[in-house]
Design goal:
The protein is α+β, with helices and mostly antiparallel strands and 158 residues long. It contains 2 helices and 9 strands; from the N terminus they run H-E-E-E-E-E-E-H-E-E-E.
Amino acid sequence: MSVRRLLVVSMLAVAAGATTVAAPASANHNSDRRNLSALLTGRQVVGPPAGDSNAWGVTNVQLRPNQGRICFTMLLSKVDGTGLAVRLRSGRAGEETNAVDVALGSTRNGISTGCATAVAEATVRAVMDNPRRHYIEVTSTAFADGAVRGQLQRQNSN
């Protein structure tokens, strides 16, 4: 991993940790399962066509099942095209799917945030229970079938 990527991942981890520290003491034992992350690359896009080979990103996903919300904080770099959209999809690594579970919103190169609201509680809990069966995908006008993709994983709860 390059120094720049390591720095970006560290910055997002610190931001996520600050959110976790700020959580009320009454938070339940599932709070560590509600914060997920993913490293996004064009190589992870299942094709053809292939994803954007120069693009990469990192994302932190916050799950709020009782509120019907899935939120993200993302840093993207070098994604070609315009109209970047973030989708949460079901599927294991290397598996292609056409089912969009949740459209999370739009994004851009650089840092962005967004939330999907009115998400069915069962959908949010399915992601929380099996994060590796879900992935984040960013599409653009140049890469309508996916510019970058990354499997979700639980963050370390150190």
